[in-house]
Amino acid sequence: MALSPSSAHAQQGVTLLEMMIAMAIGLVVLSAVIVLYTQTARSFHQQHAMADLQVRGRMATQLLGEELRRTGFWGEVMSPARSGECSDMLEAVKIECALPVWGGTVAQAKVLGLVPQSAATIDHGAANPSAVVAVRYADHGNGTCLTLDASRQLTLAQPCQGNWHYRTGIYHLRMVDDAYSGEKVPALYVTQIEKPNSDERPVSSEIVRHVEAFEVEWGRDDTGDGSANQFYGSGAVAQWTAVDWDSVVAARIYMVMRSEKMAQPVPAREFLVAGHALTFGPDHYQRRLFVTTATLRNGRLRGAYGF
Predict the structure, then answer these.
(1) Could you give the CA distance from residue 120 to residue 192 in angstroms, rounded to a whole number?
(2) What does each of the 307 residues of the chain score in pLDDT, given as a tens digit?
(3) Which positions, given as ranges, span the membrane (predicted)?
């Protein structure tokens, strides 16, 4: 039986030209899908990195701010006295002098013995600021027992008075190996000295990574009204004595945090840190400056009410 002309035409395949056109259209659609997916994945990675940067920055500044608000508290009934030796800063860092807070550079901290000479801290000098902050106070934790001796000086001898324990934290930057990137990255560390003036090794713990700059300005109360009259950076407090640190009622914290490495290059950025311009060249990192001011409540109360 012979096929009709219409049936023969219906059984014909596509021509080479039609197949090439279909393949071209398919390639265009596939390319558009790949580009859209790549842009979406890149955008998601950037948003995730910025969200992580925000969380880490807020956590670090909030933690240090809370520590500074507690510093100088020696218990509900403790009002420690000082000997004349405390006028020397080499002696003032001892627990008997009840120095509430200290801030400065890495070199100054090593001279005072707050940071061991062998500590792998970052000292950028004139580059990115790398401050050191030491806080001290009493709490109900598991630290060394804190009490007063017969001359009303702080001591770590037993027994405890009111179950108060000594708490100290020395905050500084150091470089650490990062397994994710395979590089050394800057991190904020805290060193805790459980028994000052002893041979026990301090315990250091990492708080957060990718802190590229750390600076603190100290607000001093020079009129006794409980409010800061002027703020001083780490380089301006090198000659301060224990009496000067007693008058500190506020601290302004600056931290420049960076993200994980980005796929796209990031243009140069400039931040104003403690009155100085800090510039980062173009690279593959997003950065953000975090600034917060903490009130040293116990120093402010002593200044305003004279106790």
Answers:
(1) 15
(2) 555 555 555 556 778 787 888 888 888 888 888 877 777 766 767 777 788 888 999 999 999 999 999 998 888 767 788 888 888 888 888 888 888 999 998 888 888 888 766 665 665 544 788 899 999 998 887 778 888 888 888 888 766 767 788 888 999 998 888 887 788 888 999 988 655 555 556 788 899 999 999 999 999 988 877 788 899 988 889 889 988 998 899 999 999 999 888 778 889 999 999 888 999 999 888 899 999 999 998 766 665 445 4
(3) 20-38
Strand order in the sheet with 101-104: 101-104, 132-139, 165-178, 183-192, 203-209
What's the chain look like in SS3? CCCCHHHHHHCCCCCHHHHHHHHHHHHHHHHHHHHHHHHHHHHHHHHHHHHHHHHHHHHHHHHHHHHHHHCCCCCCCCCCCCCHHHHCHHHHCCHHHCCCEEEECHHHHHHHCCCCCCCCECCCCCCCCECEEEEEEEECCCCCECEECCCCCEECCCCCCCCCEEEEEEEEEEEEEECCCCEEEEEEEEEECCCCCCCCCCEEEEEEECEEEEEEEEEECCCCCCCCCEEECHHHCCCCCHHHHHCEEEEEEEEEEECCCCCCCECCEEEEECCEEEEECCECCCEEEEEEEEECHHHHHHHHHCC
Between the alpha carbon of residue 60 and those of residues 122, 214, 262, 275, the distances in Å are: 17, 11, 22, 21
- Residue 95 makes CB contacts below 8 A (sequence gap 6+) with 136, 154, 155, 156, 166, 196, 197
